[in-house]
Amino acid sequence: MLSVPTLPKNTAKTDTASIVRKIFGGRRQIHLHTNDFSAEFSTRVKKSPEGTMTNTIELTVNESARLISDAGDRTLLDVLRDELRLKGPKYGCGKAQCGACTVLVDGLPARACVLRATRVIGRNITTLEGLADPSSGELSPVQQGFLEREGAQCGYCLNGMVMIATALLSANASPTRDDIRNALRHNLCRCGSHLEIIASVERAAELMRERQHG
Ligand code: FES
Ligand code: FES
Questions:
Q1: Which of 97, 158, 184 to mutate to test the pocket of ligand 1 (most atoms within 8 A of CB)?
Q2: 104 and 77 housed in the same domain
Q3: Containing structural domain, residue 109
Q4: Looking at 80, 107, 128, which one is the last position of a domain?
Q5: What is the pLDDT of residues 119-167, one digit of tens each?
Q6: Residue 124 and residue 151 share a domain
């Protein structure tokens, strides 16, 4: 049985960085089953001009406000891929088991295939498309690390690996090999590229430190 870290109830947004640090820095088992993402989420149902209730919600995705019509019970993955045309997050198992759909919610990894879109209203959602520098287009250290160390074969798992590694390095800039293995342990790679993936995260950590120190 995989352990499930959850945000404590009533967690303020500003507390999420320390939670990420605890999850990754404390070497606890992680499994990112966001059905149990227990922060308080509110559903904002907008009123049409005629006063009738509509099912339109507003999400903040990659620092832009995006209106989603007919959110209903749709998953965040469905909304991101099919409505916002963000194809970074992948559909793998649909059951929170493989990690291909991983996004960041307030910096914390979340499995978008099992997370209803209405539960992330008011949160900052980051997808793979939001990692590069928006003005220069420069790849993030993690993206660059995977590129340099060829951390993928078919690439299907790549989104999840990159997003988890991004959260890991934001909490721990100098992870050990065990830290990396532990962070990625619940993300599946069917091609068996694990050694290259670990080397990619190690390179990403180097790049991040280099950029931080000029
Ligand atoms: S598609 Fe979401 S965890 Fe597999
Ligand atoms: S590179 Fe193919 S699933 Fe990981």
A1: 97
A2: yes
A3: 13-128
A4: 128
A5: 999 999 999 999 999 999 999 999 999 999 999 999 999 999 999 999 9
A6: no
CA 92 to ligand 2 centroid distance, Å: 11
**Residue 171: closest CA among 24, 31, 12, 30:** 24
| pTM, entire model | 0.80
Residue carrying the six token digits 């406000």: 65
In a domain, 133, yes or no: no
Distance CA 198, CA 184 (A): 9
Most ligand 2 atoms within 8 A of CB, residue of 90, 97, 164, 190 to mutate: 190
Q: pLDDT of 9-60, one tens digit each?
A: 444 444 545 544 544 543 333 334 343 333 333 334 454 455 555 589 999 9
DSSP states along 182-207: HHHTTS--TT--HHHHHHHHHHHHHH
* Cα of 136 from ligand 1 centre, angstroms: 31
